[in-house]
Structure prediction request, 171 residues.
Amino acid sequence: MECPSCAHEILEGQDTCEICQGDLAAVGAIPQPKRGRIHELILEDPLSQLNAPRPITLTARDTVAQAVKLMRERRFGSVLVVDEKDTLVGIFTERDLCRGLGSRREPLDWTLLQDVMTPRPQALCEQDTIAKALNCMAVGGYRHIPIVREGLPVGFVSIRGILNYIAKNAL
Prediction:
């Protein structure tokens, strides 16, 4: 590849020419990455393609001990908290366990989820894209997002689930 200003040979990816110090980005000399299968997966595939696992659901009156037991058994990092109509009202995650219980002295079987859960979590629907989920995770600083259908939890998406999906389908 050559510098468009002085015709000096440049290496792919350089942002300035070593000879004339010309800005290669301004003249379009920096090659743009090709948009491939990973790009399509992230921007176009809906969350329904992830085959998200059915969530563990408990009520706000259930205990942290119950949640932890189920999370360990199923190897999940979260429990979705629902009301008496099974509508999503909160989420309890490994992070809530670490942060929310650090100063508490009562046993986990005395601590109710309503006291340590994250209320009204952001939720997505099955038609939302993987890109939207990743954006929500990055902006919100979390690793699990409930998936709802008509307000009822039907699954959850995790960063691990997204990475597994990309790894299996990108090639």
About this structure: The chain has two domains: 1-32, 43-169.
